[in-house]
TrEMBL record:
<keyword id="KW-0234">DNA repair</keyword>
<dbReference type="InterPro" id="IPR035937">
    <property type="entry name" value="FPG_N"/>
</dbReference>
<keyword id="KW-0326">Glycosidase</keyword>
<keyword id="KW-0378">Hydrolase</keyword>
<dbReference type="Pfam" id="PF01149">
    <property type="entry name" value="Fapy_DNA_glyco"/>
</dbReference>
<keyword id="KW-0238">DNA-binding</keyword>
<dbReference type="GO" id="GO:0034039">
    <property type="term" value="F:8-oxo-7,8-dihydroguanine DNA N-glycosylase activity"/>
</dbReference>
<dbReference type="InterPro" id="IPR010979">
    <property type="entry name" value="Ribosomal_uS13-like_H2TH"/>
</dbReference>
<keyword id="KW-0456">Lyase</keyword>
<comment type="similarity">
    <text>Belongs to the FPG family.</text>
</comment>
<dbReference type="InterPro" id="IPR012319">
    <property type="entry name" value="FPG_cat"/>
</dbReference>
<keyword id="KW-0227">DNA damage</keyword>
<dbReference type="GO" id="GO:0003684">
    <property type="term" value="F:damaged DNA binding"/>
</dbReference>
<protein>
    <submittedName>
        <fullName>Formamidopyrimidine-DNA glycosylase</fullName>
    </submittedName>
</protein>
<dbReference type="GO" id="GO:0008270">
    <property type="term" value="F:zinc ion binding"/>
</dbReference>
<dbReference type="Pfam" id="PF06831">
    <property type="entry name" value="H2TH"/>
</dbReference>
<dbReference type="InterPro" id="IPR015886">
    <property type="entry name" value="H2TH_FPG"/>
</dbReference>
């Protein structure tokens, strides 16, 4: 699943669609079939409502909150928002023609096609179809945003991070599970949780209440460092992540522990399932 750096990179590469009007919407047969079966595949509201809401509106701004992208849309009468989650395998492409999508899997599994007033198309492809699109009049109405902590770049983020971890909700949890909760810090998933915990020498299984504030503060710094490193290297491509131009990231070549056999110091790594995800760690370097 794309984490914060990958979603941020997609957001940055989507800037050419700003100030473009959406002139038409085409949805895949998978979406229509899912809705007929009551699954609300990708489009998390009635299809007719979604199409009516976004058609004819101009994309004024793009943003990111945690692992979500959002588009601010407006016409002469109303402003609204598309809030999008990439799920496990979602990808956006800006193309002149469908054949501009080079990988057959993404071309085959195009789910949402937004036609733009310059003749281009903004395409959302999703192989596994776990992604989401919602429309909301206000971003604050979207429930995950109401609970979400400040972004890691916010000057209040470190203080919120430590205060949240001290709360009753998180103090008894394993630290890895806690930092993957967006109420503590947004955007940390399985990959960057494992990497940042290794860099801060903290065992992912350690209970939050047994970690000092000094070590928690250092962990916050390492999360920020890992995010920034990933941004500089185009994100991590493990399987399905692609940039808007179809490129793959390079961050996976810098992993210290994730999907590795040994840590950088040559110690054999352990694995443990935490929050249903396989966690990689070193019992020598981490404590």
């Amino acid at each position: 699943m794309p984490e914060l750096p990958e979603v941020e990179l997609v957001k940055r590469e989507l800037t050419p669609v700003i100030n473009r009007k959406i002139t038409g919407v085409e949805l895949s047969s998978y979406i229509y079939k899912g809705h007929r079966e009551g699954k609300k595949t990708i489009i998390k509201e009635p299809i007719d409502s979604f199409i009516q809401t976004v058609t004819g509106k101009t994309i004024l701004h793009l943003g990111r909150r945690g692992k979500y992208l959002y588009f601010i849309l407006s016409d002469d009468f109303k402003t609204t928002h598309i809030i999008s989650h990439l799920g496990m395998s979602g990808a956006y492409f800006i193309v002149n023609d469908l054949d501009d999508i080079k990988e057959d899997n993404f071309k085959k599994h195009r789910q949402v096609i937004l036609s733009l007033d310059n003749g281009q198309k903004l395409i959302y492809s999703d192989i596994r179809r776990f992604g989401e699109m919602h429309t909301y009049d206000s971003l604050q109405d979207f429930p995950p945003f109401k609970r979400m902590a400040p972004e890691y770049t916010d000057h209040l983020s470190r203080e919120h991070f430590i205060r949240s971890l001290h709360s009753k909700k998180f103090s008894e949890k394993m630290i890895k599970a806690a930092i993957m909760d967006s109420e503590v810090i947004p955007g940390v998933g399985n990959i960057y949780a494992s990497e940042s915990l290794y860099l801060s020498h903290i065992l992912p299984t350690k209970k939050v209440k047994n970690i000092s504030d000094k070590r928690l503060s250092n962990l916050f710094d390492k999360i920020c460092e890992v995010f920034e490193l990933s941004l500089s290297r185009g994100g991590s491509t493990i399987s399905d992540y692609r940039s808007v131009t179809g490129g793959k990231g390079e961050m996976q070549h810098s992993f210290k522990v994730y999907q590795q056999k040994q840590c950088p110091l040559g110690h054999d790594l352990k694995t443990k399932v935490i929050n249903t995800r396989n966690t990689f760690y070193c019992t020598t370097c981490q404590r």
